[in-house]
């Protein structure tokens, strides 16, 4: 498949590129600093910003699916890359007839057993709320579209290994799941891209 990858220089994004190429996909990735991505067969890097609709459209043109690993600028001021970036991605996909999109978010956007979202619960750390709000806006951009979307929502992301062994749960975080490796998040995204087991819903992931 021909894949578009956003957030390509981040921890999850780099693994997505590595694994996608190893599986025989071709990749077009958007990067503000293309030099951060080493040239390799099957990879095309487009210079630009996800907040630029024209750059987003160039990356998506002619591809079959979109994988977004967009992150924020920081906890205090996460910026608009996750939220407006996903709106730009959705708009470009709809304009070009590309259907499949997967994104990554924090587990705060999942449903709580007590009702509402996890990030609305009293025990959710306030310092993470601004980032989680951006993730929620990205999810809403997907949800309110007619695309075949999946939002992968994870607890703490750690550097580790690609084990392929983890738990998933629609709309909720698996019980007592505390963390997941960036490698296994990328693994699941590529599997779910074609498995399509969680179309048009959030899915919690963890160990």
What name does CATH use for the topology?
Rossmann fold
Poorly predicted residue ranges: none
Write the element-wise H/E pattern from the N-terminal end onward: EHEEHEHEHEEEEHE
Report helical residue fraction: 25-40%
What's the CATH superfamily, by name?
A: NAD(P)-binding Rossmann-like Domain
Mass-distribution shape: globular
The count of domains is 1
Instruction: Please state the CA-atom Rg, rounded to the nearest Å.
Output: 16 Å
β-sheet strand percentage = 15-25%
What is the CATH class name? Alpha Beta
Mean pLDDT: 96
Q: What is the first-to-last residue Cα distance?
A: 29 Å
Query: From the 3D coordinates, which CATH architecture would you assign?
Result: 3-Layer(aba) Sandwich
Question: Count the strands?
Answer: 10
**Sheet with most strands: strand arrangement:** 3-2-1-4-5-6-10-8
* Main structural class: alpha/beta
Main pleated-sheet profile: 8 strands, mixed
């Amino acid at each position: 498949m021909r894949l578009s990858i956003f957030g390509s220089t981040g921890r999850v994004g780099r693994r997505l590129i590595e694994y996608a190429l190893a599986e025989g996909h071709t990749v077009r990735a958007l990067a503000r600093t293309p030099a951060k991505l080493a040239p390799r067969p099957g990879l095309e890097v487009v210079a630009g910003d996800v907040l630029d609709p024209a750059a987003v459209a160039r990356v998506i043109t002619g591809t079959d699916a979109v994988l977004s690993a967009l992150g924020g600028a920081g906890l205090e001021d996460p910026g608009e890359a996750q939220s407006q970036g996903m709106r730009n991605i959705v708009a470009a996909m709809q304009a070009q007839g590309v259907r499949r999109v997967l994104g990554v978010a924090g587990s705060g956007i999942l449903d709580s057993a007590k009702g509402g979202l996890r990030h609305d619960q009293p025990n959710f750390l306030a310092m993470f709320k601004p980032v989680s709000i951006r993730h929620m806006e990205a999810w809403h951009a997907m949800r309110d579209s007619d695309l075949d979307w999946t939002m992968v929502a994870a607890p703490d992301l750690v550097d580790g290994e690609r084990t392929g062994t983890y738990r998933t749960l629609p709309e909720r975080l698996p019980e007592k799941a505390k963390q997941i490796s960036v490698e296994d998040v990328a693994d699941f995204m590529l599997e779910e891209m074609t498995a399509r087991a969680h179309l048009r819903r959030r899915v919690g992931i963890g160990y």
